[in-house]
Amino acid sequence: MPELPEVETVCRGLRPFMEGKLLKNVTCHRQNLRNPFPPMFAERLEQQKVVSILRRGKYILVNLGDYTWIMHLGMSGRIQRNLAKDYIHQKHDHVVWQVDGVIFAFNDARRFGDMDLVSSYADYSPLKNMAPEPFEISNDEFYKRLKSTSRPLKTALLDQSIIAGLGNIYVCEALWQSGLSPFKTSNTITLSQTKVLLKNVVEVLERAITAGGSTLRDHRAVDGALGYFQNQLKVYDQKDKHCLTANCPGTIKREAQAGRSTYYCEICQKN
Predict the structure, then answer these.
(1) What does the domain layout of the chain look like in residue ranges?
(2) Which class would CATH give 4-128?
(3) Are 97 and 64 in contact (CB under 8 A)?
(4) Is 239 a catalytic residue?
(5) Annotated catalytic, 58?
(6) Kind and range of the H or E run holding 195
(7) Of the four, 57, 249, 254, 269, which is 20 to 30 A from 113 by CA?
């Protein structure tokens, strides 16, 4: 699933071509993605001016003034940009729109993505109780949120009501970089450990954004470019490889945790 760096990469690819411009030729080639489209969806987008494009967690927020067009990429969704003269409709191009001479297509083979139109994104149910993002949360607030649950630390970090935008790849990387066990009970974390963890979460995310995210299967930038942070992964998907922590003799293990693959080193992630 695209995580914060992948969604941020998409937003950055959309802004120069859409902000300040009018949407036109909006077409839905089906009636739903994960959920049905709102009534008169394409018609309500037609000729709307894009004021700004923001990201909240893993959601893309297209500000149209009177309301917000919300997009979620789901598991396999991506937005592709083509010159109108070069565009050829692809099988899973479910929503298509044009801005000047550019065609954008929301392509989603598995249809776990979502789109909606809301008057206020602050009241949109998935965003209403979403926690602060790693870039804006304080150490004290992060510590308070982690201490509020007895779940394993890895599971807590994936909870969007504790911290927003994190997913499996970057949680595994940040925990390894912090020397913290993914199985550690969240409410046993210390303030000093919290400070180290938050610092590393931000550092991992910033490096991933610079690299255009991770392309493990479906992710592409809007121009079709692959992300390349997967080439920098130290622990995620590195099962049985030597741990890269200095002087650590361990190898990377994989275990299922809350239905997700957790990668870690049992020697240097004991805390």
Answers:
(1) 4-128, 139-265
(2) alpha beta
(3) no
(4) no
(5) yes
(6) helix 191-210
(7) 254
Residue 59 in contact with residue 126, Cβ under 8 Å? yes
56, 58, 78, 154: which is the annotated catalytic residue?
Answer: 58
**Hey, what CATH class is 139-265 in?**
mainly alpha
Q: Tell me, what's the pLDDT at 195?
A: 98
SS (H, E, C) 105-172: EEECCCCCCEEEEECCHHHCHHHHCCCCCCCCCCHHHHHHHHCCCCCEHHHHHCCCCCCCCCCHHHHH
User: Residue 254 catalytic?
Assistant: no
List, run by run, the mean pLDDT of 10-residue segments along the chain (271 residues).
89 96 98 96 97 96 96 93 95 97 96 95 90 97 98 97 94 97 98 98 95 75 82 94 95 94 95 85
- Rounded to the nearest angstrom, the gap between the alpha carbon of residue 237 and the centroid of all alpha carbons in its chain is 18
pLDDT digits (tens, 9 = 90+) for 203-235: 999 999 998 888 666 677 898 887 878 888 999
Q: Which of 3, 6, 133, 173 is catalytic?
A: 3
Model pTM? Answer: 0.92
Q: Which residue has the tokens 């297509």?
A: 105
Residue 155: predicted pLDDT? 97
Predicted confidence at residue 215, as pLDDT, reads 67
Q: Is 222 exposed, middle or buried (0-12, 13-18, 19+ CB in 10 A)?
A: buried
Kindly name the residue from 21, 111, 199, 260 that is annotated as catalytic.
Answer: 260
CB 137 within 8 A of CB 201: no
Does the active-site annotation cover 260?
Answer: yes
Name the residue with tokens 């954004």: 209
| pLDDT at res. 180 | 98
